[in-house]
Structures are given as C-alpha cells and as structure tokens.
Amino acid sequence: LALLVLLGLREGRRASSRPTPLPPLRPSAMPPAYRRFLLVSSVFALALSSNAFLLLRLKDLGLSEGEVTLAYTAYNLLYALLSYPLGSLADRIGLRRVVALGFALYALVYLGFAWAYSPFLGVAFLLLYALYSAAFEGASRAYLATLVPQEAKASAIGLYHTVVGILLLPASLLFGLLWEHGSAPLAFAAGAGLALLALFLFLLDGKKPPAYPG
Question: How far apart (Å, rounded) are the C-alpha atoms in residues 81 and 20?
Fold first, then answer.
C-alpha cells in the first residue's frame, strides 16, 4: 500500500510539472476595444515604412552622406533626450490623447517630407520625427495594456506585435514601389494619408473603453 501511495505521489508530481499549454492567440477572444485598436494599428502599420527612406529623401534634397549621418545622429540623440519627459506627458493629458498626437505627428512629418524643397526643411522634419518616436512608441503599448484584463495582457501584446511586425514588410514594399514608379513625394503623401486614416478611425471610435490597470 505504501509503495502504491509513493508511486501515485510521484506520478502526480510529474503530471503537475508539465507546462500548461498556452491558449491560442484569437482576436475574437479579446475585448472589443482591443480589437478596434488592433484594426487602427494595422492601418497605421501600413504607413510605417523603413527609416532608410527618410535618409534617402535627405540625400534627394541635397545632403551629402556625411551630413545625412550627422542628421540621423541628431535624431537619435533627440529621441533619447525626449523619451523620458514625453513618457510622463501621458500622465498629465492621458494615454489616448498622446496616441492620437502620435498619429497626427507622423502624418505631419510625412507630409513635410513630401513637400520639402530644401535640406534644412528635411532635417527639421527628421527632428520632428524624433518627437513622434519618443511620444508614441511607449504610449501605444501602455494604452494597449489598458484595453485588456491582466490575465490577457501578454497574449494581447504578443498579438499586437505579431500583426504590426507582419505588416511592416508590405508597408516598405508599397512605399518603395510608389517611390520607384511614381515619386518620393507621392510615397510620403501615401504614408501620411494612411496615418491620417488611422487617426480618423481612432477618433471615430468615441466609446470610452473600460480601463484595466496598466
């Protein structure tokens, strides 16, 4: 009897040590507010072309390779300097407003790159792009975390990054095709249009989502 009990305890420990399979990532299982934001993010992801196109546009406007490198270094420094203060901006005006501001800034930068006619304007819009990056990237993830309950946060964030990551390749391909077969201004204008569409859809959803603790 003692031997049977001992064997039963061992089998029980082995069974309990097996990892519980993770549930599949299903958008339909997520709250409606999350699904709406995922749709908005998918539209916006199609506007997220590679930063290399920004640098190519600076060369197109007349900057040398060394000057483009300096401009991109300035962008990275400004991004690092602004990340913390702009991260606290959401605490004062709310995450939703910061996310909307990010969409608007991205559209403004891409319209600027479409219409820029001098290297000075190109560099100015690149530095404005640093403001967008510092304000939006952290705020979008933080906002996402408020749309789902605690037990679903990991799956929700994983699904968000999967969808956005998959769309980044076609976004850059589309941008490159518009540049090659049309023009650089056309490609940037299309990116701005997609960002404005994402902003419109985001603002159109006037329902206040249930706020879960971030």
Answer: 43
Residue 118: DSSP 8-state: S
**Pairwise CA distance, residues 51 & 59, whole Å:** 13
With beta carbons less than 8 A apart as the criterion, state whether 39 and 160 touch: no
Q: How many residues does the chain have?
A: 214
Does 79 fall in a domain?
yes
pLDDT digits (tens, 9 = 90+) for 65-123: 999 999 999 999 999 998 888 777 777 888 899 999 999 999 999 999 999 999 999 99
Pull the structure tokens for residue 92: 């004062």
Q: How far apart are the C-alpha atoms of 80 and 210, rounded to whole Å?
A: 32
State phi, psi for 212 to the nearest 5 degrees. -95, 150
Nearest to 143 by CA among 99, 100, 101: 99
- With respect to residue 120, please indicate whether it lies within any of the assigned structural domains: yes
Task: Supply 159's token pair.
Answer: 């699904």
Which structural domain range is residue 141 located in?
30-204
What total of structural domains would you count in the chain?
A: 1
